[in-house]
Structures are given as C-alpha cells and as structure tokens.
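hey can u check if this looks right to u? its 208 residues, i copy pasted from the old doc so theres a chance i mangled smth
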Amino acid sequence: MPDEPRDIKQEIQRAAGLEKPPTGIKVVAKPSPKLRLPKIAEISVWLDTYDDLFSDFDPRPYEERVVSDDFLREARAFGKEKRGGQFELVLLVPHKLQDTAQEEVIVKRLHEFFADNRRLTHAAIAAHRRTGLRLVGLALVLLLAGAWLRSMEHASFLMNFFLVVLEPGGWFTIWNGFDRLFFMPSHLRSDLEFYDKMSACAISFIPY
C-alpha cells in the first residue's frame, strides 16, 4: 500500500516544539526554548486569534471590548504560579495573523482593564473597612446604652429587657466591626493580589 501523505509543515512544527495547540486559550507551563521567550516569563498563553482575549458577546473594537472570562481564568492560574518579583505575560499568536498595530491597542486595553479593576478592588476594600468602622461606632453606642441602663437603681421590666438585648448585640456588633476593619475577605485579597500583579506586568506578543 502507498504511504499516506505527510504534512511536512506539521512535522517541522512538532520537531521544533511549535505544533499548534487545540482551539482556544491554553497555558503552557514550560514553553519550548525554540520560541526564545524572555527569561522573565515562566508561562505563556497560546491564542488562535486576538479575539480569544475578549468576550464573544461584545462586538465593540478592541480598545473598548470586555476581556474574556476564559483568559482571566488562565491569567489567574498564571499569577498564582509566580510568587513575587517582576514577570511578563507572553501571548503567542499565529504568525500569519500577527498585526503589530492591533497588538499595541490590545496591550493598552489589557493594562487599562487591569488598572481599572485594581482601583475597584481597592475601593471595595476601603468600603469594607468603612463598614467595619461604622459597626464599631454603633456597637459602642449600644454598649454605652446598656451600661447606662445597668447603672439605674430601679429599672423597670422594659429597661431590663432592653439591657438583655443591648449588651449581647453590642458585643456581637463590635467584634463584627473589628473583623471588617482588620481582616480582608479571601475573594478581595485574591483579587487585589491578582490585579496588583497584572497591573505591573509587561505584556508582549510572540508569533508561532
């Protein structure tokens, strides 16, 4: 039987470590040295097209388009593996689709997106702590009211009832307030760490 036709280009790509990955976004933990990735980068992201970075449901141009949830998930996985120090996000695109003008727009959009979300996360943390401060203030009022009722020599049944309600409520509220003042929810802490890293990272495109 005659030999099956061979795809020479595919064999060359496979030998060089540049074989095209499955459709969509894929994180490569140890990229091929043939790509000559910067030493600063530890993980690169394969893209089929520039559209993989953005939402399929947003028809606007790249400078306004919403960033894809799939890309953000992969970027979060990327960020968790890199602890401290500077790093670069390397986006691998097909050579035939490379457009440096579009890449400049996309890099600017990604930096704006990460910077905006970093500001929003800081604002959410500040609001969380302001709520804690208000709760502490409310708790002090409740505890002072309870102390005033306790100081009365001939308190009525109704006053005793308020005392029973105010003191536990005051202690519960003050501990809840301290918790918000000094402890950050895990999702806000995770978001802050992620957006701090991504706001400071360098973003570059490399063709494959």
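The two ends are 35 Å apart (CA to CA).
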